């Protein structure tokens, strides 16, 4: 959340009130014993890991996306105040001094995993629980029963989220969380075995392992002479050509002309290109091949397996099968590879005002040409999609949207600028527009009627904030791009890539760059996507002001820069090619 993992938010807030912060759990600074044995065991492990000098212990869950320093300061301050505010039930052991300050959320509920404890009280409480039933599997509430507490209403910062569905339903998510939301909400495409050339654009579902060594047999790397034993060599025939099998053997002291790619004959232990030898003919005797001085240490024989042995892993799962890797798979003797994808997509525009791009002037009042649909195929291809056909169009009617979402309208499109029936099925429908909540926006209700699962509904980014991703009941995915052309391109290039990654398991390294004075371009509370142009000095120049209703501000900018929300001057930005 807020552009960073929730744990980071919580750790930042904790670090603002103490220099001793311990994260607990598998992968944390310490871990409950045994792992996953519950929050009370986790708190005990965290307490044991804290330095002795610590006398106030902040207990905080990792799933509080809105937690801030002020909330923790308020809890600490409340614990230091006299007992007048204490609302817990005094017990025989208690002296009336509160053991802990406990946060109360906006709904008036105790938030047991947001509290500040006096260390001795917490240690004593854990000891008591340890003696009576143990810590494992205990509800965290057990810590607080019978303690004198100071309750502090902290409101929104106590909100916790347990599932991505809760995160998504609670409002626009941070751009940095889009990948996680998609990973959780989208089911990867099935892996299929395909011939290497037909699989280009797919993502390896299993490592690519060579069936054959490269080269498969010893061959010549150059046009020249196959040689046997030490020279000079008596020239014998016939010439060895590529593509012929089982050449006869060469005996020591002889040479045979050989072409690039031809099998090296048995008995030959070296090949020299013709530039490195001299061929002399002495009267009527056989020609003699002599190595020139430059041939010392040279050998143009490619032994079998010189480049790789059979069984060598040429690429890991998650790598995109690009044309080069497809070719390498063929070199390695593979007749099929296991891939997910390519992810087939179709673009469908919406909006009754939108006419085909080639509509002649004059346009009727209020109508505009489609200035983005026909371009999105290229943007989506850059993002990793295989885009089928020209864009279709879905009229602004409830019925048309229902038919599109249910699959009744097909998902392909013809030049008629309408989604036609009987079109090939696709994996993803990329819809342009209708993501808002206006009078003509029928997408959300249609998704609801169809029983689609909303995977992402709004992202804290500008442009493109209203984007939607939904998993349709028939297995297709809907990627809803905001209608403003620049917003549509931005979301297609960024979220589009993330959709391909989630559906295919694609692993990609982000291209990161540093940009001068980034803090002047960043905004609090939401990420920005800005046109980026090469600055001629190896860096990128970003345009800070963009209008979203057209693509004019993107002209000459081959990339988009993703500026994280509240980015500092030196934070890296991700550079995404959009074209
Ligand atoms: N009350 C609010 N209204 C709007 C908000 C908001 O936050 N609150 N956000 C605005 C932004 S930003 C965008 S982006 C849009 C997203 O809404 P939709 O996805 O429903 O987009 P539409 O309303 O369908 O279209 C928006 C705009 O883009 C033009 N458009 C649509 N398709 C095309 C196309 N293929 N070629 C050219 N232009 C297109 C359309 O005519 C509209 O002018 O919502 C805002 N409203
Ligand atoms: O999605 Mo709109 O900007 O963000 O034009």
TrEMBL record:
According to the entry, every stretch annotated as the MoaB/Mog domain falls at 346-502
Which family, according to the similarity comment? Answer: Belongs to the MoeA family.
Give any Pfam family that matches: NTP_transf_3
Q: Give the pathway listed in the UniProt entry for this protein.
A: Cofactor biosynthesis; molybdopterin biosynthesis
> Is the keyword Transcription regulation assigned to this protein?
no
**Xref: InterPro entries:** MoaB/Mog-like_dom_sf, MoaB/Mog_dom, MobA-like_NTP_Trfase, MoeA-like, MoeA_linker/N, MoeA_linker/N_sf, Nucleotide-diphossugar_trans
SUPFAM superfamilies the UniProt entry points to? MoeA N-terminal region -like, Molybdenum cofactor biosynthesis proteins, Nucleotide-diphospho-sugar transferases
Question: What does it catalyze?
Answer: adenylyl-molybdopterin + molybdate = Mo-molybdopterin + AMP + H(+)
Metal-binding in keyword set: yes
**Tell me, what does this protein do in biology?**
Catalyzes the insertion of molybdate into adenylated molybdopterin with the concomitant release of AMP.
Required cofactors, per record?
Answer: Mg(2+)
What name does this protein carry?
Molybdopterin molybdenumtransferase
Which Enzyme Commission number(s) are on file for it?
Answer: 2.10.1.1
Q: Which SMART domains match?
A: MoCF_biosynth (SM00852)
Cite the entry's keywords alphabetically: Magnesium, Metal-binding, Molybdenum, Molybdenum cofactor biosynthesis, Transferase
